[in-house]
Specification:
Structural class: mainly alpha
Largest sheet: none
Shape: elongated
Oligomer: single chain
Helix content: over 70%
Strand content: under 5%
Number of strands: 0
Number of domains: 1
Radius of gyration: 18 Å
Length: 80
């Protein structure tokens, strides 16, 4: 039977891996939103889609930054 310490360590590793994966997803969404906002990607619906692109960029970049900050904060606490 595995000890509780081993199980908690594996859960922390999985949580950190999830944070890295989601930060990558949100950074890709931010890049897509930036391209939409700049008009580099033509979208056939309407020219007003650029405001949606900027909103997607700002929100996705903020979530990505939050996830990376949390990951950094966890690692800095572990060192002390």
């Amino acid at each position: 039977m595995k000890s509780l310490r081993t199980v908690k360590r594996k859960e922390k590793i999985l949580l950190e891996a999830d944070m890295i994966v989601f930060a990558g997803i949100f950074s890709a969404m931010a890049g897509f939103g930036l391209l939409l906002g700049l008009g580099a990607i033509e979208y056939p619906v309407a020219p007003h889609i650029s405001s949606y692109g900027w909103a997607l960029f700002v929100n996705a970049a903020a979530i990505c930054g939050l996830l990376l900050f949390n990951l950094y904060h966890r690692h800095s606490q572990r060192l002390h």
